[in-house]
Automatic annotation (TrEMBL):
Pfam families: CheR, CheR_N. This is Chemotaxis protein methyltransferase. One of its GO terms (molecular function) is methyltransferase activity. PANTHER family: CHEMOTAXIS PROTEIN METHYLTRANSFERASE (PTHR24422:SF26). Residues 3-273 form the CheR-type methyltransferase domain. Methylation of the membrane-bound methyl-accepting chemotaxis proteins (MCP) to form gamma-glutamyl methyl ester residues in MCP. GO terms for biological process: methylation. The keyword Cell wall biogenesis/degradation does not apply. Its EC number is 2.1.1.80.
Length: 273
């Protein structure tokens, strides 16, 4: 089928079916204004499956034969925008306020919980490699399997690396040659210092142990308040006493969770229960 479906927009009823499915699976609520987004992200899948309308596609991804396609559709819905050293103030806080105060010999554990394609965890890993004298562990997860696979590979176009300080570029990145010209690759040592896995924040977490610091940045905005509260309860349970939580600078926990005490904009400390 070659029909151009780029203008196909789901009806309100079709949109509602996807809205409910996405909320059930990911906890993400897509308001009606996001109809065009749904269409832009999924129409190529309708063509690939030779399906003519959104309702038929919805029935297919709900059927036992459509489980692989359902994962693909959910991956396409998530917004993965990210970049190296995004929101520098968090990295300054980690470097200047947290690392100098670590108890000698204690294991410093960090979790990047909506890590997208890896720029966030690799920024953390660069800083920890350079500055952290304690043993450290860095876990990195996302609901989207594809972005986690990309993160593991660690290849990025040069135009996306402008925030990486030059000394980190020299120390942790290799310039691509031949077919990889115009790209850098994070070196093997840094890649191996990060543990990658998929995890849906909307579901119960496996036992991950306890963390000193969790990055939960630019993901809460996609959830409704009830789901935000539940996610923050689960995150609180993974933090060590006085553990620190970073959220995106446009996100606030005010009225959402009383488990955290504000420290600085977008930085919270786990409060006593
Ligand atoms: C905008 S990116 C933020 C990436 C990074 N934290 C940053 O601030 O640059 C949001 C990420 O949240 C992930 N995400 C969305 N829903 C999720 C869920 N239910 N569980 C885990 N990750 C989720 C998306 O796949 C996406 O990679």
């Amino acid at each position: 089928m070659t029909t151009d479906m780029s203008n196909v927009i789901p009806s309100d009823r079709e949109f509602e079916l996807f809205q409910q499915l996405i909320e059930k699976k990911l906890g993400i609520f897509l308001p009606l204004q996001k109809k065009a987004l749904l269409s832009n992200r999924l129409w190529k899948r309708l063509i690939a499956c030779d399906i003519k309308g959104f309702e038929e596609y919805y029935r297919y991804i709900q059927s036992p034969q459509g489980t692989g396609e359902l994962s693909l559709a959910l991956e396409l819905i998530t917004t993965n925008e990210t970049y190296f050293f995004r929101e520098q103030k968090h990295f300054d806080y980690l470097r200047d306020e947290m690392l100098p105060k670590l108890k000698p010999g204690s294991n410093f554990r960090v979790w990047s919980a909506a890590a997208s394609t890896g720029e966030e965890p690799y920024s953390i890993a660069m800083l920890l490699s350079e500055r952290c004298t304690n043993p450290w562990e860095l876990l990195c997860s996302d609901v989207n399997r594809k972005v986690i696979e990309q993160a593991k590979v660690g290849i990025y176009p040069e135009m996306r690396i402008k925030n990486i300080p030059p000394e980190y570029l020299r120390r942790f990145c290799r310039k691509g040659i031949g077919p990889r010209e115009g790209h850098i690759r994070v070196n093997a040592e840094l890649r191996q210092s990060v543990q990658f896995f998929t995890l849906n924040l909307h579901e119960e977490f496996p036992d991950l142990g306890q963390f000193d610091l969790v990055f939960l940045r630019n993901v809460l905005i996609y959830f409704e308040n009830d789901n935000k509260t539940k996610i923050l309860e689960r995150i609180a349970a993974t933090l060590k006493p006085n553990g620190i939580l970073f959220v995106g600078h446009s996100e606030s926990l005010h009225g959402i969770s009383s488990r955290f005490v504000p420290v600085k904009p977008a930085i919270y400390r786990l409060g006593a229960q």
